[in-house]
Amino acid sequence: MFYINKLKRQNYIVSTLLVVGLLLTIEFTQRIGMNNAYQHMHQQSSQQLSNLVGYIENILTRFDKIPEVLSKDPLLIQVLRSPSDESKVNRLNKLLADLRIMTQASDIYLIDKEGITLAASNWQMPLSFVGMNFAFRPYFQEALQGKLSHYYAIGLISDKRGFYYAYPVIDNNITLGVIAIKISITDIEEQYKETVLNDSFNFLITAPDDVIFISDRPEWRLKTIGDISTMKQGKLIAGERYVDNQISSLNIVRSTSSYFPKKLSSQLLEIKTIEETDQGTAQSTEQVFALKKLMKNANWHVHLWRSTDEIKHQQIMLITVSAIGYLLIMFLVLFTNERLKNARRLKESQQLLENKVQERTADLSATNVKLHEEIAQRQQAQTQMHEMQEELIQSEKLAVIGSMSAGINHEINQPLAALRSYSQNALAYQDRGMTDKVKNNLTLIIGLVDRLSDIVSQFNSFSKKSTGIATPVNVNNSIMAAMSIVKHQAKAEKVTLTNTSSLVPLSILGDGVRFEQVLVNLLSNAIHALSEQTDKQITIAVINANPRVIIEIRDNGPGILADNIDRVFEAFFTTKDNFGLGLGLSISHRIIESMQGQLNVSNHPDGGAVFTINLPVIGISKGSSKENHGN
Ligand code: ADP
What we know:
By secondary structure, the protein is of the alpha+beta class. The chain has 13 helices and 22 strands. The protein starts with a helix and ends with a strand. The site of adenosine-5'-diphosphate has 20 residues, from α12 and α13. Adenosine-5'-diphosphate (ADP) is lined by residues 525-526, 529, 555, 557, 559-560, 568, 573-576, 580-586, 609.
């Protein structure tokens, strides 16, 4: 809970900081960006204003010398001296008309010193200046004083704005009249408008009386940008400069912007316009970036006004770009921070994991050492057990031999007794000199010794320790060997041994001595089980069940008690009170299992026990097997 509250507070702080940062970034960017934009606009406007001033000055100075040069023309003096000379007046009228075309002036005319126009370039026009009195015009009055004069005014007849040049016509130091040239302001406006068509600014020229005399915006013309008081209005009308045009005010006020650089000579203005529409009056406000320059010759102020829409667009762009930029940077910062945090966490968990792995490895190494020790101990124990097992197997063999000792005794004692009597007889025959008989007895003795050594050698090979190495073993040969070992006991016990094995010589893989031991053990047990029987039968059968071989040893004894049948293969299980070790079947079972086989027991339905050995066959043996019936 505490953690969640802390997290919420952290998120709140981060969000607040982000918003404050965003606002500061926008403000900062605007401050710099807008400052630059205004500076740039100022530079651009200054350049354009200089061009405009240059252009107008150039036009005006172009006409400066013309009146003076014209005043020197003798025809002018002649007409002024004799104004009634029609031919001369006509000549001058034509000359002035030609000069007007050449100079692109609006009108050129000659005024006598009373102010009456004697000749004019527009002499043929319906509203010709000829005969008109311009004595009231300041330019005429100034020129009469003997110098070039400039003047701007609205034409009395044409009602068009014009700029006037006037120069005195002097002959022999007597001022006879004035030559005047009027140029059309409209022409200047139109020409300049064409050149600045692509530049998005407006221009206006104001006279010292603050009246806009020239402008590319017709609705601004003849309006004052200054204060218009009744007195001023009266003064303007009295001067007849603007004839009977009402001079109204162009409603402009100073405007401000916190981003506007203070040191700039330009300023922001707002022009308020009231428009008459069908729905009534509508007021619109236009903000302009204003710059002005004084045109010294004419004492005019040339103004350049540029709409601030462009700057406002830039401002919106700046706000958008700075906000996007800021958010992008913040996103990157937060994202990188998050990644770094994740990387740190990952590193920490990796370190943790590494530590755990190291701990586990140390544990494992310790366990491994312990395990190795245990394995070594087990191996030692196993070796000991193996040795003990070998000993046991050997003891069991000897026990089997022991159990057969009665039969063997009989088998050995009989030839020994015969040997004794043959030897005594041989000695007696020797004394009597019956060499033939001696020889005969010695031959019999040799035969008996051979038989004895035969018996002993059979037991010798059985009692010796096995190699434990698996080699191909011929099943029939092993059965024959086992039978020859037990046959003396069988004979003593009057047991009939019958071998019904097939003629096919089959081979198994294993230790031959041990396999033989199993067979001897099973046969010996069967002989023992038949001790109480009258008719004693043991049958050995070999069944070829490719890929396996089944060896059955059946007796017709009492069989195995149902309670004991599951226990006969247990170690130390025996029903033989006096001499049984109870190891024979358990060892035999293990030997057969080690040869990938099984040793089972069952009771035959006709009575007696049946022991079955089941082993894998590895091939058909080369040697042949023969059916053998022993007794
Ligand atoms: P031991 O012969 O020393 O008793 P074994 O392991 O060879 O040990 O035999 C265990 C027991 O199995 C014998 O004591 C006997 O009771 C029983 N047994 C073995 N073979 C036969 C058989 N052919 N008929 C009846 N019982 C048998």
